[in-house]
Amino acid sequence: MNIQSAAQASDLPVKTVRYYDEIGLVTPGRAENGYRAYADDDVHKLRFLGRARSLGFSLDDCRQLLSLYEDRNRASADVKALTLAQIDDVDRKIAELKLLRKTLNDLAKSCHGDDRPDCPIIDGLAR
Amino acid sequence: MNIQSAAQASDLPVKTVRYYDEIGLVTPGRAENGYRAYADDDVHKLRFLGRARSLGFSLDDCRQLLSLYEDRNRASADVKALTLAQIDDVDRKIAELKLLRKTLNDLAKSCHGDDRPDCPIIDGLAR
DNA sequence: GCTTGACCTTCCACTAACTGGAAGGATTAT
DNA sequence: ATAATCCTTCCAGTTAGTGGAAGGTCAAGC
Hints:
The structure is a homodimer of 127-residue chains. By secondary structure, the first copy, chain A, is mainly α. Chain A has helices at residues 3-10, 14-22, 40-54, 59-70, 76-109, 120-126, and strands at 29-30, 36-37. In chain A, strands 1-2 form a two-stranded antiparallel ribbon. The structure holds a DNA duplex (30 and 30 nucleotides).
């Protein structure tokens, strides 16, 4: 499978897929002509990356998550520990976002939102 | 007021304050010796920036907000629209994180977590 | 067999929003 | 006078890509 098909199958831009190869995250084989040759397994990793990235995991986090996926000799306890750490991370992020949402919502609620110039959002931010 | 005092008063790193000058967001006057001289109004803007940034507004958003802040004749509706867009964004992120949390949790729950190499988490990711 | 267009390659430069550090000048304290 | 602490500019690096140029390859149509 060439890069464009892999990109479409994983819902990532071609440039990004090439970048993930460059930094060693998903390194496909090469065809005779030098083209990247993506296997189904590679596409699977790409899709996983796309999902994890869109959820705020850094590429470094993703590298860890992928190593779970790739290392067949890892003790399952290690795998579980890493997964639980990721869950904690997700929980923290959710909590942060909820707080952020509340702050923004409080600001928006207090704003009459018409064409008058005075605005509680601006005043709230300036406080 | 020198840059360090301004930074402390606005709770921003000195480097960041200098950066905001560099990109033309908050451009203080200069003293005889070439030092940046921050007025109270500059500090006010800096604090505004710090708060808006920490709430997830991009510097581009901030530039808009700042111009709205400075424009006493702007409609509060413009400000509200910007804020509501931020809230939508946050909501999307929260929903996605909850989905990911569930996926990771399901994987972790199914894992026996001992020193055997086979692990349902890995199998689940490989699916 | 040749051309056209779509695809692929690498490489270099650029983005946001800083952050760190070096080199050197100014100010303040002892 | 000297040391410590500011301040300045400039250069480089960070994360996670994105855009574009220069050039090689492939499949279709004439």
